[in-house]
Design brief:
Number of strands of chain A: 25
Largest sheet of chain A: 7 strands, parallel
Shape of chain B: globular
Largest interface: A-B, 52 and 46 residues
Largest sheet of chain B: 10 strands, mixed
CATH architecture of the largest domain in chain A: 3-Layer(aba) Sandwich
Number of domains of chain B: 1
Radius of gyration of chain A: 28 Å
CATH topology of the largest domain in chain A: Rossmann fold
Strand content of chain B: 25-35%
Number of helices of chain B: 5
Oligomer: heterodimer
Shape of chain A: globular
CATH superfamily of the largest domain in chain A: P-loop containing nucleotide triphosphate hydrolases
Order of helices and strands of chain B: EEEEHHEHHEEEEEEEEEHEEE
Helix content of chain B: 10-25%
CATH architecture of chain B: 4-Layer Sandwich
CATH class of chain B: Alpha Beta
Helix content of chain A: 40-55%
Number of strands of chain B: 17
CATH class of the largest domain in chain A: Alpha Beta
C-alpha cells in the first residue's frame, strides 16, 4: 500500500486519500482494474477492510470523469443492493462524504419501502446516478413499464453482503432480477461484496450469466480473533439453553469492556438474559435489548444510542448479525450454541471493525453438549474453516412471482424468458417442462381441470407474446412482491389489567371487550401466542407481561406483578447445528486425546459415559435402550440438528407403532433423539438384532414420509409461504385485512383439497422442496441414514446413561410429539365429563 | 374419517345425531342436514384474480355423497350458503351438476336460502325456502338472537380451539346448549369462526354452550373452559 499505487488513482482521488491520511488498498485497486476492464468481480473481505468503498470507487471515478452534456439528466449509473434497508441508508450517508469532499456533484439516493410514493415516481422518471436499494425494490422497478428506459444507462451493480443474500429465496429473486438487468443493460458489470465463505466459486458463478465466473479478489484476512470459551466457576447445567448460570460472569466481562455485543439464538433467550443482567446490574450499566419482535422505532433508538457510544452492552439475536459498523464494540459474547462456524465468524467480526486489531470474543455454552459445540467452533474459527450453506436450486414460487412481474413490464416471449431465467445460476438446471408449469400457473393456476381460462392473469396473444390481461393484475403484483413471508404477527398492546374480574382468587382473564388504546410494545408471532392461554405471563421487551386476551390482530397485555414468567418452549432459533460443526463434535467425542481440551466437568461426564455405556465413535450411530419408570426408552445420537431429528422422530414412531412397540412420544434436540414406549425395545433388539437396522432403514423416506407429510403442519406452513410468494393468495397486511370485505381463505383448506386432487401441482412441489431443505431437513436426514447403515451400535442399559440425561431433561420443556392429535380432544372431553360428574 | 360414528345431542327435546362428517341427522324423519357448502367458492375467488384450486366443489360433493350413501336419508336439507355467490350455480361443471342430480334422485331436497345464495340455484331441482319446521325444530340459515328454542342454524362456521397441556388444535364443531344448535360448515373451502367470538356470546347469553368437536372417528364434547380464542 505504497504511495506509488495511490498515484495510479486520478489526482482528485489520490489527494482525497492523502488528505485523510489513508492509502488505497490493494483489493480496492484490483476491483478498480476489473471494473475498467469491464469485468464482473467478487470481493471477499473481512469486516473493516473498506469493502463498501472498494465497491463504489470505480463508480465514483467513472462518474467524476464523465462530462455530463446529456440534456435530460445523466441517467442511472450504479445500482447498489443490500439485504437491509437500514444498511442501504447508512451506506448512502457514508458515500455522501467522499462525494462532497471531492466535489463530485453526484445525486445519491436510496429507495426502500419507506420512500414516499412521489419520490419513487420521480426516481423512475429522473433517476439519480447512484441508487441504493433492496432486492424487493429492484423487482418492483423491473416490473414497471419504465424499466427498459430506466436501466438502459446502467453501468454498474454493487451487491453488498452477498453471502447473506444468496442462500435464500430473496437471493433467487435477485438472481432473476439481475438476469433481466443483463438483458436491459448488456454493458453493465456486477461487483459482489461478501464475507468469507466456504466456496467462493459458487458466488463467482452466481454473479454472472451462466456459464461464466466473476473475477475473484481476496482482501488479506484480518488479525486472528482472540477467542475463548468461558470456563465457568459455576456448575455446568446438563441441559437447557438459558445460560443463566453464567450471567454473573458475563456481567463481569461487560464491566471490563467498553462496548459488548451479546448474541443469543432466540428472542425468548434474549429477553431472559436481558432480564437477568438487569437484576444484578448494581453499577447501572447501560444495557439494551434488540430483537426482531421489538417495535421498529425502539430498535432504531437502540441502534442510534449504540452508534453514539452511549451503551455498554446490547443483548441481541441474529437481527444484528449484519448491519451498520459500530467502531466501539470491543467484545462479542456468544451465549449458547454457535450453530455454525461461519455464523460465529460473522458475529465475532462485529467487534473491532479495524483490520489490524484482533476481535475479542467469548463463547458461553449453556449446557454440556454446547461445550463440545463451542470447542468445535473455536477450532474451526482458528483454522478459518467455513460452513456457509451450499448453493441452492432456485425456488419455483419465486419463479412464478418473477414471471408475473416480467409480464407487467412488457409483453414477453416464453422462449426468450426461459433462456434468460436459465442464465441465472440458481435456475441453470430448470427443465422446460417446469418453466411451462410455472407459466401456466401464473396464467390460469396450472390446474389439470382447465376451468379458469376466462380468469387468466396473463394471456398469449396472436403475436405469440404473453401480456397481463388487465391493469389490476400489475397492481396486485406490486402489493405482493417479495419473498419474506412473516409469520403471522400480532401487535402487543399494553392495556390496564382487569383486577375486577377476580373470582375465588383466580387470575383475572379476558371475558369481554377490553379497553384498547394503550401503547404498542412490538409484535409477536402468532404461533408463540398459541402456546399461551389468557392469564399466562411471558417476557417481552424486558418486562413480564400477562396476556389478557386477543382481539383481532392484537394481543392485549398488562404488566404482571409476578416475578416468574411461564417459560415458553424453546423454539430453538431458526438455524440448526451445521453439518460441519456436527462432524467436528463427533470427532472430538471419539478422540480421548481431544477431551483434554475440555473443561473438567465435561471430561468427567464423558469418562462416566464411557464407563456406563459407550461414547459414540465418529462413524457410528449409538443407540441406547433402558427402562425407566413404567416405560422403555430409546435414545439415539445422530448429531444432525433438531429439525432432522424431529423428522426422524416422526418417521421412527410410525414404524415402531407398526412393530408393536407402542411408542408414546419423543423429544428431539440438536444432538439426540429420545423415544419412549410401552414395549421393551431393548429386549426386542437383542432378540432380533436386525430390527434396529430395519428401524433406521432408508426406506422410511418413502411411503412413511409421504403418508406423514400429507397431514403435517410443517408442510402446511411451507405451502402457505409458497402460496403467498407465488401470488396464489394475497399477502395479509397487519391491521389492514380487517377493513372492508374480508377476502381471505385458509391455505390449510386449499392444501388439503389440492393435495387430494392434483398432488403433482407446482406449488405442492415448491412446498415440498422447501420442507425438504428447511423445516424437515430431509436431505440431511437422508445423508445420515445412508452414513450409519451397518454402523448402528446398540447398547442395552439398566438405566439412563450420562449422555442421555440432557435429552431426558428436555421432556416436559420441549413440545412432545407423536401422540395422535385426537388425544388432545379426548383429554378435553374427559375434563368435561369430570366437570359434569362433580 | 369414519362416517356414522356420531353423538346424540338433544335440542328442544328432539334427538339429533351430530355426525363426524359435520352433518346433522334426524333419524325419526330420516332427514340429513348440511350447512354452508359454499360450492364454487374456488371459482368465486378466481373471478377476482385469486386462482385457488378449482377442486373444492368436487371435494365437497364427494364428501356429501359418502354421507348420503351412509345414512340413505329420504330428505336432504342444505341449510343455506350452499353456493358461494349468486352466480355460483351457473358455473357448476357438467360433472358436478350431474353429481347433484344423482344425489337428489328419489329423495326430497330442500335448499334453505342463505346470505350468499338468497335465490333458487340456477337450473337445479329442489324446493327453496327461507325456513322449515320439523316437529319442535325450526331450521334456518342465520341464527336469530332471542327466540331460540329448537333452532337449527348454520351461517357462523363454528370452530373450537381446544387447548390442553398437550397442545392445541382447531377443529370444526357443532355448538349447542340444548335449546338450539349451530352446525359446522360442510364445504371444503369454508373457513371457521372461533366459538369464543362475541357472535356466539349473543346467541347463548345464559349459559356457555358445549362444543361437539369433529374428531377423526368420533365426536368429542368439550366444555367452553377447554376452548380458547384464536
Amino acid at each position: 500500500m505504497s504511495n506509488a499505487t495511490t498515484s495510479s488513482l486520478p489526482t482528485r482521488f489520490a489527494d482525497w486519500f492523502a488528505a485523510r491520511g489513508w492509502s488505497v488498498r490493494d483489493h480496492q485497486l484490483a476491483l478498480l482494474q476489473h471494473a475498467e476492464a469491464g469485468e464482473n468481480a467478487l470481493l471477499i473481505a473481512p469486516t473493516g477492510a473498506g469493502k463498501t468503498l472498494a465497491g463504489f470507487l470505480p463508480s465514483l471515478i467513472e462518474l467524476s470523469q464523465k462530462k455530463t452534456n446529456a440534456p435530460e439528466g445523466p441517467g442511472l449509473h450504479t445500482l447498489y443492493i443490500s439485504p437491509l434497508k437500514a444498511l442501504a441508508v447508512d451506506v448512502a450517508r457514508n458515500l455522501e462524504i467522499p462525494a462532497a469532499e471531492m466535489n463530485l456533484r453526484l445525486r445519491i439516493e436510496t429507495r426502500t419501502g419507506d420512500t414516499s410514493a412521489s419520490k419513487r415516481q420521480r426516481q423512475r422518471r429522473d433517476p439519480p446516478q447512484i441508487l441504493l436499494t433492496t432486492p424487493e425494490q429492484l423487482a418492483l422497478l423491473l416490473s414497471s413499464p419504465d424499466a427498459a428506459p430506466l436501466f438502459a444507462t446502467l453501468r454498474r451493480v454493487v451487491l453488498d453482503e452477498l453471502h447473506a443474500l444468496v442462500t435464500s429465496k430473496r437471493g433467487d429473486l435477485l438472481a432473476l432480477g439481475l438476469a433481466h438487468l443483463r438483458t436491459l443493460a448488456p454493458a453493465m458489470t456486477i461487483t459482489g461484496l461478501s464475507a468469507t465463505v466456504r466456496d467462493p466459486d459458487e458466488l463467482r458463478r452466481w454473479i454472472v450469466a451462466h456459464p461464466g465466473k466473476a473475477k475473484l479478489v481476496m482482501a488479506p484476512p484480518g488479525a486472528p480473533a482472540d477467542l475463548a470459551m468461558l470456563d465457568t466457576r459455576e456448575r455446568l447445567p446438563w441441559s437447557g439453553h438459558g445460560g443463566a448460570h453464567a450471567v454473573r460472569e458475563v456481567y463481569e466481562r461487560i464491566k471490563s469492556a467498553t462496548t459488548t455485543l451479546i448474541f443469543v439464538n432466540t428472542r425468548a433467550q434474549a429477553e431472559a438474559i436481558f432480564q437477568q443482567l438487569w437484576r444484578i446490574n448494581d453499577d447501572n450499566l447501560a444495557i439494551a435489548l434488540h430483537h426482531g419482535s421489538l417495535d421498529a422505532s425502539q430498535r432504531r433508538r437502540v441502534e442510534e444510542a449504540m452508534a453514539q457510544g452511549k451503551l455498554q452492552a446490547v443483548v441481541c439475536t441474529s437481527t444484528l448479525d449484519l448491519g451498520i459498523d459500530w467502531g466501539a464494540v470491543d467484545l462479542v459474547i456468544n451465549m449458547g450454541a454457535p450453530k455454525g462456524a461461519s455464523r460465529l465468524a460473522q458475529r465475532i467480526g462485529r467487534a473491532n471493525h479495524r483490520l489490524d486489531e484482533p476481535s475479542r470474543a467469548l463463547l458461553v455454552p449453556s449446557n454440556r453438549f454446547e461445550v463440545l459445540e463451542c470447542v468445535a467452533a473455536i477450532e474451526a474459527a482458528r483454522e478459518g474453516a467455513q460452513d456457509t450453506p451450499p448453493a441452492r436450486a432456485g425456488a419455483l414460487d419465486v419463479l412464478c412471482q418473477h414471471i408475473l412481474g416480467m409480464a407487467g413490464a412488457a409483453p414477453f416471449d416464453a422462449d426468450s424468458l426461459y433462456a434468460e431465467v436459465r442464465s441465472a445460476e440458481p435456475y441453470v438446471a430448470l427443465a422446460r417442462a417446469t418453466f411451462d408449469d410455472a407459466l401456466s400457473f401464473v396464467a390460469t393456476g396450472g390446474y389439470a381441470l382447465k376451468t379458469y381460462e376466462r380468469f387468466a392473469k396473463i394471456k398469449r396473444n396472436n403475436d405469440g407474446l404473453w401480456r397481463v390481461t388487465n391493469g389490476k393484475i400489475a397492481q396486485s403484483y406490486r402489493m405482493n412482491v417479495g419473498t419474506i413471508v412473516e409469520a403471522d404477527m400480532l401487535k402487543v398492546r399494553l392495556v390496564q389489567g382487569r383486577a375486577a374480574a377476580k373470582r375465588d382468587g383466580a387470575a383475572p382473564t379476558y371475558t369481554g371487550p377490553l379497553r384498547r388504546g394503550g401503547r404498542v410494545l412490538g409484535e409477536i408471532e402468532e404461533y408463540f401466542l398459541e402456546t399461551l392461554a389468557p392469564g399466562d405471563t411471558f417476557l417481552f421487551g424486558g418486562e413480564i407481561l400477562k396476556l389478557q386476551g386477543i382481539v383481532e390482530d392484537e394481543a392485549l397485555v398488562s404488566r404482571a406483578r409476578s416475578s416468574e414468567p411461564k417459560v415458553p418452549s424453546y423454539a430453538g432459533g431458526k438455524f440448526p447445528l451445521s453439518t460441519y460443526l456436527a462432524e467436528r463434535v463427533r470427532k472430538i467425542l471419539s478422540s480421548r486425546a481431544a477431551w483434554t481440551h475440555l473443561p473438567e466437568q465435561v471430561q468427567d461426564w464423558l469418562a462416566l459415559q464411557s464407563k456406563r455405556s459407550r461414547v459414540p465413535r465418529a462413524g457410528e450411530l449409538l443407540v441406547e435402550t433402558f427402562p425407566r419408570g413404567e416405560r422403555h426408552y430409546m435414545v439415539a445420537y445422530p448429531f444432525e440438528g433438531r429439525l432432522a431429528h424431529q423428522t426422524l422422530g416422526m418417521l421412527l414412531t410410525r414404524r415402531m407403532e407398526r412393530m408393536g412397540l407402542k411408542p408414546l412420544g419423543f423429544v428431539a434436540n440438536e444432538y439426540a433423539l429420545a423415544v419412549w414406549m410401552l414395549a421393551d425395545v431393548g429386549a426386542r433388539v437383542q432378540q432380533h438384532p436386525s430390527s434396529l437396522e430395519d428401524l433406521f432403514a432408508q426406506d422410511m423416506l418413502g411411503d412413511d414420509l409421504e403418508e406423514w407429510l400429507r397431514e403435517s403442519a410443517l408442510m402446511k406452513r411451507s405451502f402457505r409461504q409458497c402460496a403467498v410468494i407465488s401470488g396464489l393468495i394475497e399477502r395479509r397486511f397487519p391491521g389492514k385485512q380487517k377493513s372492508g370485505k374480508q377476502v381471505t381463505i385458509s391455505t390449510d383448506l386449499v392444501y388439503n383439497v389440492l393435495h387430494r386432487h392434483q398432488p403433482d401441482h407446482i406449488l405442492l412441489r415448491a412446498a415440498r422442496d422447501d420442507a425438504a431443505t428447511g423445516l424437515l431437513d430431509l436431505s440431511r436426514l437422508a445423508t445420515m441414514l445412508a452414513r450409519v447403515r451397518g454402523h448402528i451400535v446398540h447398547k442395552p442399559l439398566e438405566r439412563v446413561s450420562p449422555l442421555a440425561v440432557p435429552i431426558l431433561l428436555e421432556i416436559g420443556r420441549e413440545p412432545v410429539y407423536g401422540q395422535a392429535q385426537d388425544e388432545i380432544l379426548a383429554e378435553a372431553a374427559a375434563m368435561l365429563i369430570e366437570e359434569a360428574g362433580a | 374419517m369414519i362416517i356414522g360414528n356420531g353423538r346424540e345431542i338433544v335440542v328442544a327435546g328432539q334427538s339429533c345425531m351430530a355426525d363426524t362428517s359435520g352433518a346433522l341427522y334426524l333419524a325419526g324423519s330420516r332427514t340429513l342436514i348440511v350447512s354452508d357448502l359454499h360450492l364454487e367458492k374456488g371459482s368465486s375467488f378466481a373471478r377476482r384474480g385469486m386462482l385457488i384450486p378449482p377442486y373444492d366443489t368436487v371435494a365437497t360433493l364427494m364428501h356429501l355423497k359418502r354421507v348420503i350413501t351412509h345414512f340413505e336419508p329420504t330428505r336432504v336439507i342444505a341449510l343455506g350458503d350452499s353456493f358461494h355467490d349468486r352466480q355460483a350455480a351457473e358455473r357448476l361443471s357438467e360433472h358436478n351438476r350431474e353429481t347433484i342430480e344423482e344425489l337428489q334422485d328419489k329423495r326430497e331436497w330442500i335448499w334453505v336460502t342463505g346470505n350468499h345464495d338468497p335465490a333458487a340455484p340456477y337450473g337445479l331441482a329442489g324446493e327453496v325456502c327461507d325456513e322449515i319446521r320439523i316437529g319442535a325444530l325450526v331450521l334456518r340459515h342465520e341464527p336469530q338472537a332471542g327466540a331460540s328454542l329448537g333452532e337449527i342454524a348454520g351461517h357462523l362456521h363454528p370452530v373450537a380451539r381446544v387447548v390442553t397441556a398437550r397442545g392445541s388444535l382447531r377443529r370444526r364443531c357443532f355448538v349447542s346448549d340444548g335449546t338450539r344448535c349451530i352446525l359446522p360448515a360442510f364445504g371444503a373451502y369454508a373457513g371457521g369462526l372461533n366459538l369464543r367470538d362475541e357472535a356466539f356470546g349473543a346467541l347463548f347469553p345464559d349459559a356457555p354452550p358445549t362444543a361437539h368437536v369433529l374428531g377423526r372417528d368420533r365426536i368429542y364434547s368439550v366444555g367452553q373452559d377447554s376452548c380458547f380464542a384464536d
